[in-house]
Amino acid sequence: xxxxxxxxxxxxxxxxxxxxxxxxxxxxxxxxxxxxxxxxxxxxxxxxxxxxxxxxxxxxxxxxxxxxxxxxxxxxxxxxxxxxxxxxxxxxxxxxxxxxxxxxxxxxxxxxxxxxxxxxxxxxxxxxxxxxxxxxxxxxxxxxxxxxxxxxxxxxxxxxxxxxxxxxxxxxxxxxxxxxxxxxxxxxxxxxxxxxxxxxxxxxxxxxxxxxxxxxxxxxxxxxxxxxxxxxxxxxxxxxxxxxxxxxxxxxxxxxxxxxxxxxxxxxxxxxxxxxxxxxxxxxxxxxxxxxxxxxxxxxxxxxxxxxxxxxxxxxxxxxxxxxxxxxxxxxxxxxxxxxxxxxxxxxxxxxxxxxxxxxxxxxxxxxxxxxxxxxxxxxxxxxxxxxxxxxxxxxxxxxxxxxxxxxxxxxxxxxxxxxxxxxxxxxxxxxxxxxxxxxxxxxxxxxxxxxxxxxxxxxxxxxxxxxxxxxxxxxxxxxxxxxxxxxxxxxxxxxxxxxxxxxxxxxxxxxxxxxxxxxxxxxxxxx
Length: 528
Hints:
Layout: E1 7-11, E2 26-29, H1 46-56, E3 61-69, E4 72-80, H2 81-97, E5 105-109, H3 114-125, E6 129-133, H4 139-148, E7 153-156, H5 161-164, E8 173-176, H6 182-189, E9 194-196, H7 198-202, E10 220-225, E11 235-239, H8 240-256, E12 266-269, H9 276-287, E13 291-294, H10 302-307, H11 320-323, E14 359-363, E15 378-384, E16 391-392, H12 396-402, E17 403-404, E18 407-416, E19 422-427, E20 431-433, E21 439-441, H13 442-449, E22 455-461, E23 469-475, H14 477-486, H15 493-498, H16 500-516, E24 525-527
Parallel strand pairs: 3-13, 5-6, 5-7, 7-8, 8-9, 12-13, 23-24
Antiparallel strand pairs: 1-2, 3-4, 10-11, 11-16, 14-15, 15-18, 17-18, 18-19, 20-21, 22-23
Helix pairs in contact: 1-9, 2-3, 8-9
């Protein structure tokens, strides 16, 4: 392959041997052709990111939230870096006074708000592992994470306390972001446990003092539990160095394309803090002394947040399809591996070239027909660098499955573009064998069948004990009713879905698109 515009080759590819897959050349960003960006002086931990910024920018506005007036969101009210720093230290002493020491686990459960950031920074100050609890998860998943991570104390959004109480026997302390009603206090205290309002907890450590401990780059700062679409959620352990290495890389990339972040920038906090992407973005803006304003939680009124006279954001990070991709976008890589360059329209449809602090290669996946050494290289995307996670919590077996010889195997199938960017074309983990030994790539099939205008969605399933695939189809209501009228049938939508003629019609549409797209017989859906 010819030299790529935005990536440079650092290691030659190699043919596989003894059953091993072939591996394409390793590339890195052209902005790192002379080596990775140097570490940022003075940064040893995520606590230093905040501490150094508070020292440089004490009077800068840091965290802003719309004040609620008569049940309606009003204007933004701000805390300065200096004010947040003081609150963080008080909160950290209170956490420590509860017996949560360095290496202890603190859960944070709720939507983005200043208290979320303050709780996280208090964990950073005293070397406590911050464990985000996705505010959209149910009690079952929350209970699993609390138990698996051995969380001792949890900070909880006021309206989430009822949900948290379903798992509280596994905790010792619950702290509300707001108030605690008497009934909640009574329920918790009868088990000999503790629950505090935010203001109460801030004063718990009054008249006590604990020294801030020395933290190392390799110390774990957070355990983030990945999506868990198959099986239990996995606790991704991320160390301090992974986060600020990415900060250095993004800063260098922005410098190279003549873009910069400043202490007068304002960021609208919209993406969920429980995901690694926004955690890293938040650290990036804090490092630069920027202001962070939180949306008030109603996506339909997001434009009002943006227009508020006391916010006026200069930066707003979003992803397509109302951020759905962020839930899959990788925790194990601190979310930052590739980034599109500004004003380079040739990168549309790609994820861009690598950031300048990782190496990337493709590994052939012969069972799916992907060859990393072909004229247009495609294969599983593998990543190496200090931004990678430190392993899965209590799951060394899973860690060893994806970390091989220092390379993280993402499961994404990528294709190198001539300009050095990567295009995601498939997903490796969604393949399986049917009983006759044929491999099936489900994502690709679902994408083909989703082209049918008369269906809203489709889910395809198969396993190695059967020789065929099945599908669950959600038909388009209007299309189904139109088909029924043409055949002299009537009835409500559920009844039409049960009609055998409607099923035959949908199956016929599936067959037509399969033939048109040349889907192999063993890959086609035979029943649903």
